[in-house]
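As the next step, I needed to go through one protein, both as residues and as discrete backbone shape codes, included below for the reader:
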Amino acid sequence: MIRREISLNKKARLCAQGFSQTACIDYHRTYSPTGKLNSLPTLVAMAAIHGLNFHQIEIKSSFLNAPLLKIIYLSIAQGMSTDRQRFCLRLRKAIYGLKQAPLAWYERLKNWLVRTAFLACLMYPCVLFCQKRSELWLYIHVDNIAIFGSDIEPFKKEIASEFDIKDIGVADLLFGVKVTHFSAYVSLNQQHLTESLLDLYGMSDCKPVSTPLLPNEHLSPAMEDELSTFDGLGFSYLSSATCLNLSFAVSSLSRFLKCPGLLQWKAFLHFLWYLRGTPNLGLIYSRQGLNGVISYSHADWGNCQTARRSTTGYLVLFNGCITVWKTRKQPLVSLSTAEAEYKSLCDLALTVVH
């Protein structure tokens, strides 16, 4: 007798037509928290100091585990033998396509974790730590969970008894970030994304330059849409998740997504040339050192030639390693360099406190 192994990775799935739902009747809240990428380096830095392991699991068909609070009826799909004119389906659990399905799944997972002695961080609801097991942290992104801990296997068995999971094992690729473990440190980089972006624009063999943008270059919006939008800027945003040296360039180019011109396109090409020379840059987190926090902030006063607004930039170091950084245009015009610097310092203080 020949036994055939059947793969279920590719399968048909019944999806709801969420676009036909009516607000306040079929659903109320729809926002579901997801893991913020800037909180991941902090967890990696903390895990490196304490010698914790990094593992990753995936919940299979996660949305189907979440009960629904609202009564929702579904038309019977074509191909089923039931009379579609006389009968309909009542949903007991969330299915893919419902507007409230992501929130229902998050609450289902969070409620179970709270019952097992986990507590969510106030400002980062997708980062949880265990109160009864020391040194066990979770980072949740929808149905993917990164686990940081010294003894992870008991938790894996516990969550496997509640949900159907896929155990990925030691995490060498965390949410698009490549993790490499060494005896003295842990490194994070996204070289694969950088190489994909260069291949997309045929820049794999271009001549590299030393800066992400030209020095003292001030871009302004084009009078009309001279070119299509930067399709590859999304890749650039993702690759800046481990390369803070790209933060200012990505922030500057992102301002012209709706009005790109020839100058913006040339600046984007210059950005690609810089990536060609720095594809393997990333973050390094040492396993030794003090658990101290050092922060820096700066502001470029009035650098936006159109709105005369300033640019905020700051970074936070934990154990001598960069964990949080940000570059953004300030929402209001500053009357002096001192005012711009204080606004930047205020943003930094809020980040450190929360």
Q: What stands out?
A: The mean pLDDT is 85. Residues 18-74+87-175 form a domain with the Alpha-Beta Plaits fold (CATH 3.30.70). The first strand starts at residue 53 and ends at 59.
